[in-house]
From TrEMBL:
InterPro entries: Cdc20/Fizzy, WD40/YVTN_repeat-like_dom_sf, WD40_CDC20-Fz, WD40_repeat_dom_sf, WD40_rpt. It comes from the Eukaryota. This is Fizzy-related protein homolog. GO terms for cellular component: anaphase-promoting complex. Keywords: Cell cycle, Cell division, Mitosis, Repeat, WD repeat. The keyword Repeat applies. It comes from Gasterosteus aculeatus aculeatus. The keyword Cell division applies. Gene3D superfamilies: YVTN repeat-like/Quinoprotein amine dehydrogenase (2.130.10.10). GO terms for molecular function: anaphase-promoting complex binding; ubiquitin ligase activator activity.
């Protein structure tokens, strides 16, 4: 090799391997310019600072538009699973990732981990150790003609988890005449005894999921009143009924008789929530009342924090905190001892009716906004911080967490009228259920989705 060419080549390589600060300081003088740097007659690229694992993962993601990325997240077909398996196979062969099973596309961390020692250099020399005796369960046969490694063979032999099928056809459809089309009411609730209570006009009806028998619990038309909310207690023996005139009636479902009628509100009661033997009620008069049904009605707690109608109430699974949503676009969190809210969230741009506490993570609260907001937001009530949010594209009417998986269901009004199943925390859509011709205003978690498909 020519000595002059070799000297220029070494000078170029040394210049490329210098740190950025040293290179800038060396070229800081007026006499230094890019033109003065002599280069060889061919280009030799340097790959010292390349992170092959990251570049390999994001090679296709950088070319996608936001709409394409959203479609990829929603894909749950077999082709997407094949693509994940193929990507893992390439990681094993090119990067030595050592992946032995196909990662689940709906898990929280969908990117297979790559060993850190292989992330600095793609090509390397290794000293081959003495081959251990052949084990048919753990190693590929030495006489195999397959070019794949042992880890890749395990990856291909690993059992694939069958995709979960969510039926898009309702197993039961119930007609609900006189079901009010009002965003601020809560007229459907499911009991622990597998009874569905529905407020239709001035009456409350009970439908048994076991026998499909329908019974009428009460009729408020005698008093010139109507039903605005229903809520079962935890044991499923008592059902609270909120009325348009501001009363809260407690009914014995088994006996079909009214136990008591509680006063205190000056407007309709649109939200109810039980906490053991205590009942919380929210009204259009902007007041939340907490009362123990075992004591006299005078022993009550008045919680005043909303400036407009209270349309959502939910107690936390540990029975320590009450979340309330109102038409003032506020989400408030109360404890069992204070008369003032301990936390206040004001990020929503519309009424907050959809509220749900996570049964899987302590202190995790989800909320949804109305037509002007359309966002699904998550809050850490232990620290008071906002976690995540996503625009659903339509009015969020209800939320309910799954008790068996880290998923939640949201029902929507204007303008999609659909039911969505979300995976948390990735917020990918597991399923989209359509078929409602009007807003899906009422949801009960035990039924997974609203059974009423018509408002007549």
């Amino acid at each position: 090799m020519d000595q002059e060419y070799e000297r220029r080549l070494l000078r170029q390589i040394n210049h490329q391997n210098l740190p950025t600060e040293a290179r800038l300081s060396k070229c800081g003088s007026a006499t230094c310019s890019p033109v003065s740097i002599r280069s060889g007659d061919r280009f030799i690229p340097t790959r010292a600072g390349s992170n092959w694992s990251i570049n390999f993962h994001y090679a296709n993601e950088n070319c996608r538009s936001p709409n394409q990325t959203h479609k990829v997240k929603d894909a749950t077909s077999d082709s997407s699973k094949d693509a994940v398996a193929y990507a893992a196979l390439l990681r094993n062969e090119l990067l030595g990732a050592g992946i032995e099973s196909v990662p689940d596309t709906h898990t929280d961390d969908r990117r297979p981990s790559v060993r850190s020692q292989d992330s600095h250099s793609l090509f390397r020399y290794a000293v081959h150790t003495k081959r251990v005796p052949f084990d048919s369960d753990n190693e590929v046969s030495p006489y195999s003609l397959s070019p794949l490694s042992n880890k890749s063979h395990k990856l291909l032999r690993s059992p694939r988890k069958p995709p979960r099928k969510i039926s898009k056809i309702p197993f039961k459809v119930l007609d609900a005449p006189e079901l009010q089309d009002d965003f601020y009411l809560n007229l459907v609730d499911w009991s622990a005894g597998n009874l569905l209570s529905v407020g239709l006009g001035a009456c409350v009806y009970l439908w048994s999921a076991c026998t499909s028998q329908v019974t009428r619990l009460c009729d408020l038309s005698v008093d010139g009143d109507s039903v605005t909310s229903v809520c079962w207690n935890e044991r499923g023996s008592l059902v609270a009924v909120g009325t348009h005139k501001g009363y809260v009636q407690i009914w014995d479902a088994a006996g079909g008789r009214k136990l008591t009628s509680l006063e205190g509100h000056s407007a309709r009661v649109g939200a109810l929530a039980w906490n053991g033997e205590q009942l919380s009620s929210g009204s259009r008069d902007r007041v939340i009342l907490q009362r123990d049904v075992r004591t006299s009605p005078s022993a009550e707690r008045r919680l005043q924090g909303h400036r407009q109608e209270v349309c959502g109430l939910k107690w936390s699974p540990d029975h320590q905190h009450l979340a309330s949503g109102g038409n003032d676009n506020k989400l408030l969190v109360w404890n069992s001892s204070s008369l003032l809210p301990v936390q206040q969230y004001s990020d929503h741009l519309a009424a907050v009716k959809a509220i749900a506490w996570s049964p899987h993570q302590h202190g995790l609260l989800a909320s949804g906004g109305g037509t002007a907001d359309r966002c699904l937001r998550f809050w850490n009530t232990l620290t008071g911080q906002a976690l995540q949010s996503t625009d659903t594209g339509s009015q969020v009417c209800n939320l309910a967490w799954s008790k068996h998986a880290n998923e939640l269901v949201s029902t929507h009004g204007y303008s999609q009228n659909q039911v969505l199943v979300w995976k948390y925390p990735s917020l990918t859509q597991v399923a989209k259920l359509t078929g409602h011709s009007y807003r899906v205003l009422y949801l009960e978690s035990k039924s997974v989705l609203n059974l009423f498909t018509r408002i007549r």
